[in-house]
Design goal:
The protein is an alpha+beta fold. Helix content is about 20%, strand content about 35%. It has helices at about 5-10, 20-30, 55, 70-80, 235-250; strands spanning about 15-20, 40-45, 60-65, 70, 85-90, 100-110, 115-125, 135-145, 165-170, 175-180, 190-195, 200-205, 210-215, 220-225. The strands form 2 sheets. Strands 2, 3, 4, 6, 7, 8, 9, 10, 11, 12, 13 and 14 form a 12-stranded mixed β-sheet that branches. The chain has a two-stranded antiparallel sheet with strand order 1-5. It is globular.
């Protein structure tokens, strides 16, 4: 297999390994040369899990810096070299909807101890005929010093609204939690969007099914909403498996 064929093979793999550290380093150093990378803009508020904020304190972050979103395709084209703390890009063909827009958001902040942390959001969206967001699968990855769930047993079967809360294994030692909307209401789910007219990053509040876990120095918080999800009884299990693959990628664990 020649070099060109090999590179094509790597690019076409269902999950492409990159790193949060590499994203931050390369986009910062290339900011001056490429206007698509890390242009600082105004921003409003931060995102976090309403249910798990008691454990991770992500709502307590201060000194926020927001950057103009950039295409996920730009990340793939420039960042192929894996390092220790890895995240992964999703094969959008595995999502149960056609993706019309893919955007990456980078936000820096300080935690309650004053340490600078980075949060990356990967948004996979479908759009309606009126250009509104329809279906979505949104991943938030936030750096943390330690596992906020360590030492805690979450035994509840329902969240504070009454929606279903399920516990599964991400690995043989780490849990992953899934919140499934089963009532007519839900905890607020927030994600980043970009206000083009005002040139600032905003947070959008909506309802969504959610997944939450800690892995390899980061908190993963996923929100997803698909119009026809109730018609498929296996839908939520499929989204759980897709998310596990996304997080773990090429690593091997006893499930």
């Amino acid at each position: 297999m020649n070099i060109t064929t090999w590179r094509t093979y790597i690019l076409k793999r269902s999950l492409l390994k990159i790193t949060l550290f590499t994203i931050i380093t390369i986009t910062l150093t290339s900011c001056a040369n490429n206007k698509n990378h890390l242009i600082e803009v105004e921003g409003v508020d931060i995102t976090y899990s309403e249910y798990f904020k008691t454990y991770d304190k992500l709502d307590m972050r201060k000194n926020l810096r927001f950057y103009k979103p950039f295409s996920i395709d730009t990340i793939v084209a420039n960042l192929l070299e894996p390092l220790t703390k890895s995240i992964n890009l999703l094969d959008t063909a595995k999502l149960p909807f056609e993706v019309d827009e893919e955007q990456a958001y980078l936000i820096t902040s300080k935690d309650e101890n004053g340490s600078i942390k980075h949060q990356l959001q990967l948004s996979y969206l479908s759009k309606t005929e009126y250009d509104d967001i329809g279906n979505f699968y949104i991943v938030s990855i936030t750096e943390v010093d330690e596992n906020p769930l360590k030492g805690h047993q979450i035994l509840e079967k329902r969240d504070s609204i009454g929606n279903e809360l399920k516990t599964y294994n991400l690995t043989n030692t780490l849990p992953i939690y899934q919140q499934i909307i089963t009532t007519n209401s839900a905890l607020l789910y927030k994600y980043y969007d970009y206000d083009i007219d005002n040139k600032k990053v905003v947070t959008v509040g909506t309802s969504a099914n959610e997944l939450y876990t800690y892995y390899n120095g980061a908190i993963y918080h996923i929100g997803y909403s698909i119009n026809d999800e109730k018609a498929n009884p296996e839908f939520h299990n499929e989204m759980l498996q897709l998310t596990r693959e996304f997080i773990l990628a090429d690593t091997h664990h006893d499930m």
